[in-house]
């Protein structure tokens, strides 16, 4: 009898705690298709993590707010994904981390969805796109050396891939990189392999100091898909 009573109490406690947990979350179903931004074709094998967010100000600023992973999904061969989300009650929006597994040849990006526009009683549809990436080979050389004080500084501010831009580097001169992206001397020659968003222009920046005069430069380079794009700097 005591054993039966113990089981009954345990069962009741389980119901109570389960009920509390259910009252503390909202359940949504989110589904849709992920396609290539350039070609429009489906992108399979991409991991999507979905977080619920609440900001202390209610203005979308998440600093010191609350974040909790609500669910995840992986796109199939047709680009389709479906996720059952358990979102904490106070959440105001969803943040989708698209390509969280860093699928090769594609950028990593984020997408936000307001929870006020979602329906708990039915499936919620969202269409997502992902930018393809390609490699950009930048070669630089001191073609007109003046002195051992010649200085070259290379800069590449954000490729839009959401990942580490530099995929490789090579030194083809006798002058070594003296500090981050800086070479000082006559025999400067180097190569950087960068990953950039394909189908768009990206900007390369550099500066040259000769005869105590520094000049700033930049150039826009269109990045084509499925090729090794190249850009040369002869200073």
Automatic annotation (TrEMBL):
It comes from the Bacteria. GO terms for molecular function: carboxypeptidase activity. Keywords: Carboxypeptidase, Hydrolase, Protease. This is Carboxypeptidase regulatory-like domain-containing protein. The lineage of its organism: Bacteria, Pseudomonadati, Bacteroidota, Cytophagia, Cytophagales.
